[in-house]
Amino acid sequence: MAQVHIGxxxxxxxxxxxxxxxxxxxxxxxxxxxxxxxxxxxxxxxGLLQKICRVLDHDFFKxxxxxxxxxxxxxxxxxxxxxxxxxxxxxELKACKRQxxxxxxxxxxxxxxxxxxxxxxxxxxKEKRKR
Length: 131
Description:
Layout: H1 6-16, H2 21-27, H3 32-40, H4 46-56, H5 62-65, H6 70-75, H7 82-130
C-alpha cells in the first residue's frame, strides 16, 4: 500500500486555488507558518483535514480511500462537492418557488369563486325577500 503524503496534496491544491498561503491559513484559522508545516506533514488529524476539505472544496480523503479494498469502498457514501450540493439545492428552491406560486394562484382563484358564490347567495336571498 503506497503512502499518501497529504501535505503535498494540500499544497498542490492550494497552489492551484485562488488563495495565497496566507489566505488559506486564515481560512483554516491557522498562521502562515502552520500552513507551511501542514504542507510538510505526511499524516494529519482528520478534523483538520475535514476543515481543509471544506475550505478548498476538495476531497483529500479520496487519496486514502483509493488504497482501501474495493469492498470497503463500496460501503462508503460518496463525498458530495459543494457545487453539486449548491446546484441541487438551487433546483429544489426553484421547484418550491414554483409550487408556492401555483398554490398562490389556486388560492386567489378559490377566493374569487367564494366571493362569486357569496354574491350569488346574497342575490338569491334578496329575491326570496321580495316574494
